[in-house]
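Suppose you are handed only these lines of text.
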Amino acid sequence: MPPMIDEILKLKEEATVAAGRLNSADEAETFRLKYLSRKGLVAQLFERLKDVPKEEKPQLGKSLNELRKSLETEFESAKSRIEGQSKVREEVPDLSLPGRKRYVGKMHPLTQTAAEIKRIFTGIGFGIADGPEIEDDYHNFEALNFPPDHPARDMQDTFFVSDDSGKFVLRTHTSGVQIRVMENNKPPIRVIMPGRCYRNEAISARAYCMFHQVEGLYVDKNVSLAELKGTISYFAKELFGSEVKTRFRPSFFPFTEPSAEVDIGCIFCGGKGCRLCKYAGWLEIMGCGMVDPNVFKFVRYDPAEVSGFAFGMGIERIAMLKYSIDDIRLFFENDIRFLNQF
Ligand code: PHE
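From them, the structure of the protein bound to phenylalanine can be written out as follows.
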């Protein structure tokens, strides 16, 4: 048997190397059991001390104590190294994992279209106003010069609010906001009025019971039809491109005189005629006209003093043209596969 001191030194070397390689709590425990437990290798050497010649005892005892201390220190430092590692492992992201996809929200195409319309008109000095969706008969019809028996007042078109008074409707257009703005302001007036409207229509690819309009109103001294045409042509060019043509077709609204329907040259075929413009070469985008003097009387403006123009367009219709959408119902189904495309 080699001298005990050699065994002590050999064990120390071997155990120190082993401690440096410990990599997990399990391995550390195996190390402790092997070297430092009550029946471990160090304890076994202590056991043999009693058989050692008396004169060698002090020296070997001292060496054994040093061995135990040294291995305990190695063991403790290996343990704290392992704990530190597992903490780092928890905190550092695993860079080999596939990336997580982030879904960015988008504005609804109608919101985007309304924002674009607002941008164009606010850019030339128009402000923005709004009014109630539940409107009274006076603002939705009467003050807009609708005669009592006008067909637009019919149950066929209008949703009435059942409160027994028979006075309230879901507004059928945003034109009532014109009245509200003029009641509360003196000319000059330059506003657009975006909002939701309702009509009792059979639902189809082209019509829905709920939709959105943007109304416009300009009142001042000496406002002319030429200014109406200039403003609308400018708007159409901003929205559909500088090459787009506009055309004003005589029409009728109770609250404007003269009235017109505005067409743009078909943006799909350039006016040659195609399926989308029904081979007319033109697409209708809004109604407009000079404010009827009777409307001014309702809001106590003097028609001899001021004049003005008004216009109204459907946001759905504009969005359908802009994005080539062929069914209005798509806007309200909230199918993410549709909405994601804008
Ligand atoms: N209110 C009309 C409609 O809903 C549009 C319009 C607004 C026409 C303003 C002329 C002036 O069809």
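What can we learn from it? The pocket of phenylalanine is lined by residues 173, 175, 215, 253, 256, 287-289, 310-312 (CB under 6 Å). The chain is about 40% helix and 20% strand.
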